[in-house]
Amino acid sequence: MEVEFTARQGRISKALRDQAEEGMERIARILGKTAHASVTFGAQRHLQIVELTVQARTQKFAATGKAATPDAALKEAVEHALNQARRYRDRRLDGKRLPKKEKVMTAPPVTRPKARDAHPSADAEPAPPKSRPRASIAVHSFPNRATIVEPHILKSAEAISLKPMTIEEAVKDTEFRDRDLLIFRNPSGVMFVLHRRRDGEMELVEIS
Q1: Neighbour count for residue 80 (Cβ, 10 Å)
Q2: CATH number of the domain encompassing residue 192
Q3: pTM > 0.90
């Protein structure tokens, strides 16, 4: 994967470049070698900011990491981009694994034989035996192999909020950090679980 580096303040050390290239290689194993990325290092007061943009074939990802040190901010941005790349890959795989529509084989309409004469003549030949009408048969097609969903494992430090927050703050924090799961307590001490469903909507569960 091609990686472009930009430093708004200061210089980028070789260690940071190696760390960024290693993270881009992990993303390239998911999206493919044709993807390219740009990494921008900056600072705001005492906060280090890393902005990461990845352009895949049909999708563009943007992630931001903020921390006290550049390497920590870079690690956070790479993790956000990895989560987006995994969800993009899973959506593509789910779309390919959907079963095809059922195929139905239709038979020509069955016609009723004409009614016989009420009084057939003695010289008339016996009628041939009736043939059974054809019936339509439904043929179902199934996927060649079972769907295998790769589990996504989260570390406890990434999924649990140590400080109390309101539901609105939890939703904003989840969207900003691009999380799929967040466990937190509100100011009253009630515990909640906020997670993203497969359709992309956020769902809140109260733990009593």
Answers
A1: 20
A2: 3.30.505.50
A3: no
The token pair at 67 is 């921390």
Q: How far is CA 94 from CA 102, 146, 148, 156, in A?
A: 18, 11, 9, 27
Q: Domain count of the chain?
A: 2
Half-sphere exposure of 29 (CA within 13 A, CB side): 6
Residue reference for tokens 């937190």: 184
Alpha-carbon gap, residue 52 to 177, rounded angstroms = 13
Establish if 133 belongs to a structural domain: no
Residue 147 lies in a domain: no
Is residue 41 in a domain? Answer: yes
Amino acid at 88: Y
Residue 187 lies in domain:
153-208
Q: How far apart are CA 146 and CA 11, in angstroms?
A: 50
Pick 7 or 118 by higher pLDDT.
7
In a domain, 125, yes or no: no
